[in-house]
Design a protein that fits this description.
Blueprint (H helix, E strand, L loop, with lengths): L2 H12 L8 H20 L36
């Protein structure tokens, strides 16, 4: 995988400016992810395995009273 070409194309497609000082870290991260991808994709899953639920953020004012306290990390959606 050409991580430099990928980083440039992804940043352009997303309209996301990539600051020169961030580029080395982004390229290192993409290289690391590219090395991990085959292990993840090759991991055997049975047909009964389902994907995880999608994260849905909830505004504090929409939480039930029992969950209103605590910090955002401990709040759960009923």
């Amino acid at each position: 995988m050409d991580v430099e070409r990928y980083a440039d194309a992804a940043a352009q497609a997303l309209g996301l400016p990539l600051a020169p000082e961030h580029r080395p870290g982004v390229l290192r991260y993409l290289q690391m992810v590219a090395q991990m991808a085959p292990r993840v994709m090759d991991f055997p899953l049975s047909p009964s395995v389902e994907s995880a639920n999608a994260f849905q953020p909830v505004a504090p004012e929409d939480l039930p009273a029992a969950h209103a306290g605590g910090d955002a990390a401990t709040r759960v959606r009923p």
